[in-house]
């Protein structure tokens, strides 16, 4: 990757962990909130990391960036989370250069999502790139790559049906309720937590259960009231949580806290209670399983539900992969251009020096020397020569590396890295 003259560091890496090998508890150890992300970026600058983006969702945490060695990025992650290097090594992955590029395309295009066709990661990737740019940690390579991934994602959404039907874990949770609970429309449902997943779940509950016994509780009551107003639902104070759980048949927890917000001591009712924990890290303590009347289902299980919709989506994977390949090829073409840009720039400067020297000689020799005309002619000739070399280097039939070395040798060029 150093041949492309895009970074002081030699290699581009994607390091991280996902639902594929890391369970919810481990993913929770490596989750990054907003403050942790900012701290990680600050540390990256202190460590002279030139460019990186950081993403953290309930299903994965990843860093894409340039480094001399991937451990530089791994250390950033472990220093700013509760995860350890030992834990990381057991469940993580490291992709390098083209492998890292391909990985970002698959992640951003929904092909690597826990639920096939779930595009929620792309908005996080956009936000992460914006945050990195604000912190002067986004070089042209990563910015161009993120934009290419966004382009591929948009095309896959519009040109295939890989995201047809409902996709998210919030829908999977409601689907699970509909499959396992009889007479859902008459059950008391309590939604605790009204962040992004909570809001999406609430919308799916209203849409699919035809239930008007849905109660919302959030630590910040006004957030719950905004959602409740939209769907004409009931909001209760956080102080009433234990009482409301006692009245509930179904409890959905999406609080996003770093420690469990629900445990067995808060559950006083003896009637059957289904608890769905949609949080990473887990927000429902495992000790609730000790209660005979409680059934606990976690996000990881819900995400594994495969239905007819998901099976149909698999049919569209080849089309999606073809789109990714097309956009990836365009990105690689741009990379090739970056590869020889420093040489062309150095060649142009060298030819301009030749022209300046010759103009000085002719100016002394000729009494009727036409300064303006000579400058124009020499400038045009320099431009035509450099354009000719550039077109040659773009030709796929030629060996770019050999040509670059020959040009540099013949013209004795010293390249600038700041292209």
TrEMBL record:
Domain notes: Possesses an unusual extended V-shaped dimeric structure with each monomer consisting of three distinct domains arranged along a curved 'spinal' alpha-helix. The N-terminal catalytic domain specifically recognizes the glutamate moiety of the substrate. The second domain is the NADPH-binding domain, and the third C-terminal domain is responsible for dimerization.
Similarity annotation: Belongs to the glutamyl-tRNA reductase family.
Catalytic reaction equation(s): (S)-4-amino-5-oxopentanoate + tRNA(Glu) + NADP(+) = L-glutamyl-tRNA(Glu) + NADPH + H(+)
Annotated residues for binding of NADP(+): 193-198
Residues of the active site: 58
Swiss-Prot/TrEMBL site (Important for activity) positions: 103
EC numbers, comma separated: 1.2.1.70
Keywords, ordered alphabetically: NADP, Oxidoreductase, Porphyrin biosynthesis
Annotated HAMAP family: Glu_tRNA_reductase
Segments forming domain Quinate/shikimate 5-dehydrogenase/glutamyl-tRNA reductase: 180-305
Residue positions binding substrate: 57-60, 113, 118-120, 124
Matching PROSITE patterns: GLUTR (PS00747)
Subunit structure: Homodimer.
Other comments on record: During catalysis, the active site Cys acts as a nucleophile attacking the alpha-carbonyl group of tRNA-bound glutamate with the formation of a thioester intermediate between enzyme and glutamate, and the concomitant release of tRNA(Glu). The thioester intermediate is finally reduced by direct hydride transfer from NADPH, to form the product GSA.
Gene: hemA
Domain Tetrapyrrole biosynthesis glutamyl-tRNA reductase dimerisation: start-end pairs: 320-413
EC class name: oxidoreductase
Pathway participation: Porphyrin-containing compound metabolism; protoporphyrin-IX biosynthesis; 5-aminolevulinate from L-glutamyl-tRNA(Glu): step 1/2
Protein task: Catalyzes the NADPH-dependent reduction of glutamyl-tRNA(Glu) to glutamate 1-semialdehyde (GSA).
The protein's name in its UniProt record: Glutamyl-tRNA reductase
Domain Glutamyl-tRNA reductase N-terminal positions: 15-160
Pfam families: GlutR_dimer, GlutR_N, Shikimate_DH
One GO BP annotation of this record: protoporphyrinogen IX biosynthetic process from glutamate
Molecular functions (GO terms): glutamyl-tRNA reductase activity; NADP binding
């Amino acid at each position: 990757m150093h041949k492309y003259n895009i970074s002081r560091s030699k290699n581009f890496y994607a390091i991280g962990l996902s639902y594929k090998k890391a369970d919810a508890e481990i993913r929770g150890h490596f989750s990054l909130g907003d403050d942790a992300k900012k701290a990680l970026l600050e540390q990256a600058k202190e460590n002279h990391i030139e460019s990186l983006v950081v993403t953290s969702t309930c299903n994965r945490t990843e860093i894409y960036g340039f480094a001399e060695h991937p451990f530089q990025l791994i250390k950033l992650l472990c220093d700013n989370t509760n995860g350890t290097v030992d834990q990381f090594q057991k469940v993580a992955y490291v992709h390098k250069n083209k492998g890292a590029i391909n990985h970002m395309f698959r992640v951003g295009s929904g092909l690597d999502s826990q639920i096939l066709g779930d595009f929620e990661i792309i908005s996080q990737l956009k936000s992460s790139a914006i945050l990195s740019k604000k912190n002067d940690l986004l070089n042209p390579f990563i910015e161009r790559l993120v934009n290419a991934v966004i382009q591929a994602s948009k095309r896959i959404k519009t040109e295939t049906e890989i995201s047809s039907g409902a996709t998210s874990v919030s829908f999977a949770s409601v689907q699970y309720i509909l499959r396992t609970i009889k007479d859902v429309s008459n059950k008391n449902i309590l939604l605790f937590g009204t962040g992004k997943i909570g809001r999406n779940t609430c919308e799916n509950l209203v849409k699919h259960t035809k239930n008007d016994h849905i109660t919302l509780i959030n630590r910040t009551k006004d957030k719950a009231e905004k959602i409740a107003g939209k769907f004409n639902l009931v909001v209760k104070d956080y102080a009433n949580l234990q009482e409301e759980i006692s009245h509930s048949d179904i409890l959905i927890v999406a609080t996003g806290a770093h420690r469990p917000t629900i445990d067995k001591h808060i559950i006083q009712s003896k009637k059957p209670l289904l608890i769905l924990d949609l949080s990473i890290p887990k927000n429902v303590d495992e000790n609730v399983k000790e209660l005979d009347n409680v059934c606990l289902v976690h996000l990881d299980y819900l995400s594994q539900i495969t239905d007819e919709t998901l099976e149909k989506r698999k049919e569209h994977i080849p089309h999606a992969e073809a789109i990714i390949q097309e956009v990836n090829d365009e990105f690689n073409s741009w990379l090739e251009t970056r590869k020889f840009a420093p040489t062309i720039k150095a060649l142009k400067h060298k030819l301009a020096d030749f022209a300046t020297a010759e103009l000085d000689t002719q100016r002394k020799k000729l009494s009727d020397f036409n300064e303006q005309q000579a400058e124009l002619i020499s400038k045009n000739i320099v431009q035509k020569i450099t354009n000719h070399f550039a077109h040659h280097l773009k030709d796929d039939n030629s060996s770019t590396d050999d040509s670059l070395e020959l040009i540099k040798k013949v013209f004795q060029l010293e390249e600038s890295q700041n292209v």
